[in-house]
Amino acid sequence: MRKARPVQDTLVLLVTAVFAAPLVWMVLTAVKSQADVYMGPLWPRSVHLENFRLAWETAPFGRYFLNSLVVASVTTASVLLTSILAAYAFARLRFAGRDWLFLLALGTLMVPGEVLLVPNFVTVKRLGWLDTYAALVVPFAASAFGIFVLRQTFRKLPVELEEAMFVDGASPWTVLWRLYVPVTLTSAAAAAIFVFLGAWNALVWPLVVTGSTAMRTVQVGLASLIYDQGYNLPVLMAAATLVALPVLLVYFAFQRLFVEAALQSGLKS
Amino acid sequence: MTGLALVLPPFFLLVFFILVPAAEAVLDTLRVERGGQIVYSLVRYAEMLRTISLRRSVVFTILVTLASVGVTFALAYALALYLRFSKGWVSTLLGALFIIPLFIPTVIASFAMVTFLEHHGYVATLLHTIGVEDTPSLVFNATGIVLTEVWASIPFATLVLLAGLQGIDDALIDSARDVGAGALRTFLAVVLPLNTVATVITMSLLFIGILGSFTIPYLVGGNAPQMMSVVMTNYFTNYLRPDISVALAALSFVIAALAGAAYVGGVSHRERGAV
């Protein structure tokens, strides 16, 4: 039986409240009247669900959601594919310069985004990709983080399994897709979740490379709404709730799986 | 040959969209026109370091980043230890909610922090009700940036540390307890040394992430001094000095590279241990 530890538990509950506070504040503000936001209590005196309708009507959020979904899904699929291929090669195949290439790939993790913003904008413009899905997806279609996480997982598998398949005449390609990929689905799921979240929550790059309303993602739409409706915090927070809701629902539906996937992935020492 | 063929597609993308632009940006900061000819010089860096506000920004950025990393690391380690070794509903609840910051857009989290921490915000009101009249300024300064960065960074740090802690065999901890080691001694003598690589990786990634963050310092920070990312944007868009902006970015890259060296060292150390 668990020992009662009231002080420790109270502290942990306080910490938990701190994590949840901005989310709670966002939802409560979304259903308040504008007068209540600044002068009223934390808890709304009356519920104003029309804020959600106003937020939805103020900007084309349906289009923003579609764009974000396309960008985040295609980016995630591309990162998974490229990471699986590279991780297998780095973990199990021998070729000239393997370790140097891996360290160089890891080195890309330390390059701050600001250094890349201007040169990549120029590149994307030269390629004629401004205001297209290509500009939003291709620069992020490979990830050193994904390669690293999957490589660590591949290295944990006993080499004997692979050798047995080679003895039976399998090619490296068959070994990869029949052996490695199926047993590393958990790590792939963890990497996929982080990549999807990164793409879904990206703001600065989509803001720079998209100009038309039709190509905006939800985060850019939200940022634009701050300029248009910044004075109307309830409508802004209703929009923010709509933006955060899909990923939050997915998280709470698969919360145990998400944490387990992250913990069982190559992040484990 | 097969190995190289599998590595090349992602490697090409990483080189084309990260390594080449980064190198190009740094080279651009070194190119100066003198007498109609392009020469390489450190003149922009000299100008940057002569400018007092930029020097202050660099120091401010490093201090805020170090403070954020330190606080995040301490809290994330405490959370990871609690989640690893505690059972019960409180632990389950914490396990479900500590990830939430990953799902909240940074812009909204920053808005929320401003509302909580501003002079007449919820925190000030709460402190007022328990008798604290003079609340220190908690937002639009370094404190606000640190608090928001900590809130936003804890989930990832906790996950990496927790993953490391889960790799430690329970038998080792039980053995330490069997020979009379208390909780602190067990942590210092067993848990911490066995989790060194996760510790180094967490701290390096936190440092690089916070050093380069823009949205939080932009929305929660003050007017002066500002973090380097905000100053870079100002020089690029408002002062029309992209050269200084990129020089600052290059300096930020050098600082991040020092943390990155620790990260790569940590990974290499793990590789050697795995062989």
From TrEMBL, chain A:
It is found in: Cell membrane. Keywords: Cell membrane, Membrane, Transmembrane, Transmembrane helix, Transport. The keyword Calcium does not apply. It holds the Pfam family BPD_transp_1. Signal peptide: none annotated. One of its GO terms (biological process) is transmembrane transport. InterPro entries: MetI-like, MetI-like_sf. The chain crosses the membrane at residues 64-88, 100-121, 133-154, 175-197, 233-254. It is a multi-pass membrane protein. Residues 65-254 form the ABC transmembrane type-1 domain. It comes from the Bacteria. Belongs to the binding-protein-dependent transport system permease family. This is Carbohydrate ABC transporter permease. It comes from Candidatus Segetimicrobium genomatis.
UniProtKB/TrEMBL annotation, chain B:
The keyword Transport applies. GO terms for biological process: transmembrane transport. Keywords: Cell membrane, Membrane, Transmembrane, Transmembrane helix, Transport. The chain crosses the membrane at residues 58-82, 94-117, 137-165, 186-219, 244-264. GO terms for cellular component: plasma membrane. InterPro entries: MetI-like, MetI-like_sf. It comes from the Bacteria. CDD domains: TM_PBP2. It is a multi-pass membrane protein. PANTHER family: INNER MEMBRANE ABC TRANSPORTER PERMEASE PROTEIN YDCU-RELATED, INNER MEMBRANE ABC TRANSPORTER PERMEASE PROTEIN YDCU-RELATED-RELATED. Belongs to the binding-protein-dependent transport system permease family. CysTW subfamily. This is ABC transporter permease subunit. The lineage of its organism: Bacteria, Bacillati, Candidatus Sysuimicrobiota, Candidatus Sysuimicrobiia, Candidatus Sysuimicrobiales.
